[in-house]
Write a structure and sequence with these properties.
three-stranded antiparallel beta sheet; globular; binds adenosine-5'-triphosphate; P-loop_NTPase; transport; ABC_transporter-like_CS; ATP binding; ABC-2 type transport system ATP-binding protein
Length: 315
């Protein structure tokens, strides 16, 4: 069998073209298109059942698509070999268990698999002790995995994904069960990886704040297609157009959606002067954008013209 290889120089680190996935009679992925540049952090958002895990697992080589093409590091996952696999880091939603292993012991053991794939520019594996510190498991390093809490277990999952110092890291809902400190530490690890190690990262999350904070670009998957593709600010601008203004006059509360907030506020003060209190101006957040888009797809099967500008690949 000839392996489908594309020059990495000409291609993106991840390239997905007209990807389709049918389970029985249901088309979960209808026509998914996107690409990811080296070092980019991309967040894939979408409602439950949209096909995020399916997309990621096709890219990891765990599922075979029903149609279309996908390339990771220039290679089609369904035809890839061990040396390709060794360049990936994978954090799945539920990882297989190793209850009797101790944390440090397991990472050390898994790390050995990556040793033959070490290169002059990318040393493999990462040091297990350093990694344990990075994910904040120092106190549990010599504990059995069966004794870890849910959040600690998830931190270990992330460490398992990172031990091979991957070129591309796939994270499927990585911070589920993290406490706020663990979440913040994890974000720090991801930022460091993408900046210092040039790791390309594709993550799924239901935490819009996390997507906004972590990613360079956001994709929204709905109805089997990528319906939005841009930075959090770009998406918000596209939807925004309006800002929400709240204020009080003589103890009465008011609220209005306006296209030009500064002008509106100026007029408000011209009319009411110092009687205006508790003034708040709020631009559309990523959450507003997300809810609006997903609702439109659900109701009409498509986005209205204004939102649809982001449909498909926009690079
Ligand atoms: N092996 C399978 N056989 C049949 N249907 C499947 C299979 N795997 C997934 N599905 C269905 O495909 C759809 C997409 O599932 P997937 O897990 O990819 O969605 P998701 O976006 O990751 O969802 P969530 O946010 O809930 O994790 C769902 O309706 C799911 O029930």
């Amino acid at each position: 069998m000839t392996t489908k290889v594309r020059s990495e120089k000409e291609a993106h680190v991840i390239e997905v073209r007209q990807l389709k996935m049918r389970y029985g009679t249901v088309d979960v992925l209808k026509d998914v298109n996107f690409s990811v540049r080296r070092g980019e952090v991309l967040a894939l958002l979408g409602p439950n059942g949209a096909g995020k895990t399916t997309t990621i697992e096709i890219l990891e080589g765990f599922r075979i698509s029903s149609g279309g093409e996908a390339f990771v590091l220039g290679i089609s996952p369904k035809e890839a070999d061990e040396s390709w696999r060794a360049q990936l880091g994978i954090v799945m939603q539920s990882w297989r268990d190793h209850p009797k292993w101790k944390v440090h012991e397991l990472l050390d053991h898994l790390g050995r698999y990556y040793e033959p794939y070490s290169t002059a520019t990318r040393f493999r594996p990462m040091d297990a002790g350093e990694l344990i510190e990075k994910v904040g498991l120092q106190e549990q390093a010599n504990q059995k995995i069966s004794s870890l809490s849910g959040g600690q277990r998830r931190r270990l999952d992330v460490a398992i994904g990172l031990i091979g110092n991957p070129e591309v890291l796939f994270l499927d809902e990585p911070t589920t069960g993290f406490d706020p400190q663990a979440r913040r530490d994890f974000h720090e690890v991801i930022r460091r990886l993408s900046k210092l190690e040039d790791t390309t990262i594709l993550l799924t999350t239901h935490d819009l704040h996390e997507a906004e904070k972590l990613s360079d670009r956001i994709l929204i998957l709905a109805d089997g297609r990528i319906v939005a593709n841009g930075s959090a600010e770009q998406l918000a601008e596209q939807v925004a157009g309006t800002s929400e203004v709240r204020w009080m006059v003589n103890n009465e509360r008011f609220q209005r959606e306006v296209p030009d907030a500064p002008l509106f506020v100026q007029q408000l003060f011209e009319e009411h002067g110092a009687a205006v209190t508790d003034l708040e101006v709020r631009k559309a957040s990523l959450e507003d954008v997300y809810i609006k888009m997903v609702q439109q797809i659900k109701n009409n099967g498509r986005l209205d013209n204004k939102l649809a500008n982001f449909e498909g690949e926009t690079e």
